[in-house]
Specification:
Blueprint (H helix, E strand, L loop, with lengths): L7 E2 L1 H9 L7 E5 L11 H7 L5 E3 L19 H10 L7 E5 L9 H10 L5 E4 L2 H7 L25 E2 L1 H10 L3 E4 L3 H5 L18 E2 L15 H11 L7 E4 L6 H10 L6 E3 L2 H8 L15
Parallel strand pairs: 1-5, 2-3, 2-4, 4-5, 6-10, 7-8, 7-9, 9-10
Helix pairs in contact: 4-9
Length: 295
């Protein structure tokens, strides 16, 4: 069996590793910050100003399928292999991912899930992200360094990725529970979507678990008992198949991470998510308390 890493590591653990000069071939730290355009945040510019010492920037808009009309859809194994290798990551490298979200995590679980998906389980999310790193008084830097390129071999687990047709079929078969990580307002159709050409709502049978419910006020992931409780309260059975979704496949990965912590790995992600669904689905497959989709 391939080596595995804890899904979460603490700021203190990472600070100790950096202080002991462990960052290198065996440990790489990635800032995976990404924000919706309407937030007016530039994560690359923020990275250049301030990041965790020794970290590199992972751009989900760069490591993606450039031929897709949808945002940051999954890349091929070849593209992921090259991208990871350019970041100094080999198949024996422990990867720690964080982002600079005010919540504590936003896009980092997406990159955690991508590494898992491509067969690399030596990957962890920094609990609390940059928010908690700063709150605990750990150092940051503006110094950037280019890691030495390494060979990385990716092997995608295609069964973890669901497409439009899979979700459409699942509305009839109810084979899996489809869990949506968007806010309650976007899910119900009462708050606007962040993309101008898409109206809010959800698909028939979907269950809403906003990604923010998995994190406490300090930005850290809830403890196992609380994670178990939020799944139960949402009506999600961890013993049954779970497919996760959101706006464009990013926060859906919080559901995969939370389930993984509860020893329920293998949550599948609908990568096209609501961005694709709204454009392709017929009006009866758009459930909304708001305007809905016109025929």
């Amino acid at each position: 069996m391939a080596a595995q890493a804890r899904a979460m590591v603490t700021s203190q653990w990472l600070a100790d590793a950096i202080r002991k000069n462990f960052v290198g071939k065996k440990l790489r730290v990635l800032d995976a910050s990404w924000y919706l355009p309407k937030t007016n945040r530039d994560p690359k510019a923020e990275f250049k100003q301030k990041h965790i010492p020794g970290s590199s920037f992972f751009d989900i808009d760069e490591c993606c399928d450039k031929n897709s009309a949808l945002d940051h859809m999954l890349p091929s194994s070849e593209v992921f292999s090259d991208y990871a290798g350019d970041l100094g990551i080999g198949n024996d490298t422990h990867v720690v991912v964080y982002d600079t979200s005010d919540v504590g995590a936003f896009s980092a679980p997406r990159v955690w899930w991508m590494f898992q998906l491509f067969g690399h389980s030596l990957v962890s999310v920094l609990d609390g992200g940059m928010k908690n790193w700063l709150a605990e008084g750990h150092p940051v830097t503006s110094e950037c360094s280019t890691p030495e390129r390494r060979e990385f071999w990716a092997n995608i687990n295609r069964s973890w990725v669901k497409n439009y047709e899979d979700v459409l079929d699942n509305i009839k078969t109810k084979q899996a529970q489809v869990v949506d990580a968007r806010s309650a307002g976007r899910f119900r159709g009462t708050e606007p979507e962040p993309r101008d050409d898409i109206l809010p709502g959800h698909f028939p049978g979907a269950i809403n678990m906003p990604f923010t419910t998995f994190w406490d006020t300090s930005g850290k992931l809830l403890g196992l008992e609380d994670l178990s409780r939020v799944f139960k309260e949402a009506g999600v059975d961890l013993q049954r198949p779970i497919w996760s979704t959101c706006g464009s496949g990013v926060t859906a990965c919080h559901i995969a991470l939370a389930a993984h912590m509860l020893r329920r790995p293998g949550v599948c992600v609908y990568d096209g998510a609501w961005s694709e669904w709204f454009n392709r689905a017929s009006p009866e497959h758009i459930i909304s308390e708001g305007k809905g989709k016109e025929a």
